[in-house]
Known about the structure:
Chain A is mainly beta.
Amino acid sequence: GAGVSQTPSNKVTEKGKYVELRCDPISGHTALYWYRQSLGQGPEFLIYFQGTGAADDSGLPNDRFFAVRPEGSVSTLKIQRTERGDSAVYLCASSSRTGEQYFGPGTRLTVT
Amino acid sequence: DAKTTQPPSMDCAEGRAANLPCNHSTISGNEYVYWYRQIHSQGPQYIIHGLKNNETNEMASLIITEDRKSSTLILPHATLRDTAVYYCIVREVGTGANNLFFGTGTRLTVIP
Lengths: 112, 112
């Protein structure tokens, strides 16, 4: 079956602009996670949804970052007033309630 | 804060067994040991996990010491496609703390 998909695969934006990154989880997976990966580092947790609600958003770096999952399936990560330090690969993963996390290929965000 | 310690890099000859060590001396009784890997430009991929017994699946074997303070991931016959960064992660399951802490992992290079 289809895995986790993320769009776009690459996004280049100018400093100060707003961006949205989309994640389509595996059908039926109730849990969805966002991670961010900088060059040479392991992925860092941002936010976790169980169904429609954010169960843990402790990893969001500041209030410019926001994520939604209005129908408990697709999720959108939103970044306002982007900064060059936001450049990274943004990874999405989904899982059944207690199952393993399956990751998408990521969105490479470059802020110029 | 990292809960695991891994060597930054390792080499392995193609066709030989790759043994990747991980120290997790502060692991608690309800924490599992998970292994993921990340091939270049892809999202992380689940490999295997265990609590205290040794585990084997189609990808790898996981050997956990009796005191659970360390473990070894074994790829029995490494191929060039196994070249990746391997992450050892300790994680509680079923308590709501579902995010993964990746650390920096071990970069395994399989040499022809």
